[in-house]
Design goal:
- Helix 3 packs across helix 4 and helix 6 packs antiparallel against helix 7.
- The longest helix is centred in the middle third of the chain and has 20 residues.
- This protein is globular.
- A hairpin with a 2-residue loop joins strand 5 and strand 6.
- The protein is of the alpha+beta class.
- The chain folds into 2 domains: 158 residues, Ribosomal Protein S5, domain 2 (2-Layer Sandwich); 141 residues, 2-Layer Sandwich (Alpha-Beta Plaits), CATH 3.30.70.
- Strands 1, 4, 5, 6, 7, 8 and 9 form a 7-stranded mixed β-sheet that branches.
- Bound molecules: ligand 2P0.
- Ligand 2P0 binds next to helix 5.
């Protein structure tokens, strides 16, 4: 038998940064993400012809660490333990570990493929709990559109008019990061003098963001999500020793975004994850202006659309 599943990446607009329970993999604060259509992972599970356990990523045997992680993940499926000689053939259209949410699409796709392969047919929230064990934020990739991941672990869609929304990725550096999100997050929880402020503020950011969505106030929503991302990085920089994913290029792009907004009145809002790349939320009508500006600064961009919300992703 051969089973294939696909999952897209998601980018948090209100970020998750810190686990309250690192066994259940539940967060200190609720987060809110958009699931995007451009980057995704397609994963096929099949019996291994050589009767071994193997993970292939983009046609190459994965590293030992990646293989062990996939093995540990699949132990959540009872039938896997009885017959672990399988081949996981995974294809990514995402740059790995560059703060572009590759682990989110990878674990969401693996969870969905395993659910079909082992015919467990889990409900959405059970599958979300399984998916979180690979990468917390991966559970958000099980749904399309705007997704809220709650402190109690549940995921749900948030209704909003996202038709014209676009997220532009400014690719500054797509090499693998030196400190993983998991390590950086744990280190921040344990040592950042601003961690309590983070949990308190992120909770308010989410409430504000939901209110602005309800009122269809894109500008206020955008400012809230930018504040949230910038605060997350400030909180990391307050860790001991500090964690700083920004490069000079990141700062240049953030400056550009601010300029476009305040001087040219273009509704563009920045978000940065665990890496130097910047994601800019805007609307279709402003994409060309933004791309032209980025090009004039020698920056590479990728335009992504928000997937439709509602059902589980395919
Ligand atoms: C997020 N990030 O909300 C935040 C913002 C990166 C910055 O979740 O330890 O791979 O597996 O739960 O989910 C990336 O970290 O970490 C992340 P684990 P994960 O998207």
């Amino acid at each position: 038998m051969k089973v294939t599943a696909q999952a897209p990446i998601n980018i948090a607009l209100i970020k998750y940064w810190g686990k309250k329970d690192d066994v259940q993999m539940t967060p200190y604060n609720d987060s809110l993400s958009v699931t995007l259509d451009t980057f995704h992972t397609t994963t096929t599970l099949m019996p291994h012809p050589d009767h071994i356990f193997e993970l292939r990523i983009n046609h190459q045997t994965a590293t030992e660490a990646e293989t062990l992680k996939a093995y540990a993940f699949l132990t959540q499926f009872e039938s896997f333990l009885k017959q672990p000689a399988i081949l996981i053939d995974s294809h990514n259209t995402v740059y790995k570990a560059a703060g572009l949410a590759s682990s989110a699409s990878a674990f969401a796709a693996l969870a969905k493929a395993a659910d079909q392969y082992y015919q467990t047919n889990h409900d959405l929230q059970t599958l979300a709990a399984i998916t979180r064990q690979g990468s917390g934020s991966a559970c958000r990739s099980l749904l399309g559109g705007l997704v809220r991941w709650q402190q109690d672990g549940l995921i749900k869609n948030i209704e909003a008019n996202t038709d014209q929304w676009v997220m532009v990725f400014v690719l500054i550096d797509t090499s693998e990061k030196t400190i993983s999100s998991r390590q950086a997050m744990k280190h921040t929880v344990e040592t950042s003098s601003l961690f309590d402020t983070w949990v308190h503020s992120a909770t308010h950011h989410l409430d504000d963001a939901l209110k602005h969505l309800k009122q269809n106030n894109f500008f206020a929503f955008g400012q809230t999500i930018e504040n949230n991302a910038l605060l997350m990085h400030e909180v990391m920089r307050a860790a001991n020793p500090p964690v700083d994913y920004f490069t000079d290029q990141t700062k240049r792009v953030l400056h550009l975004v601010k300029q476009l907004r305040t001087i040219d009145d273009v509704p563009v809002f920045a978000s940065v994850d665990a890496g130097p790349n910047v994601k800019i939320l805007t609307k279709q009508a402003h994409v060309n202006t933004l791309i032209k500006k980025c090009r004039s600064m020698g920056l590479t961009t990728v335009v992504t659309n928000i997937t439709k919300q509602g059902a589980k992703t395919l």
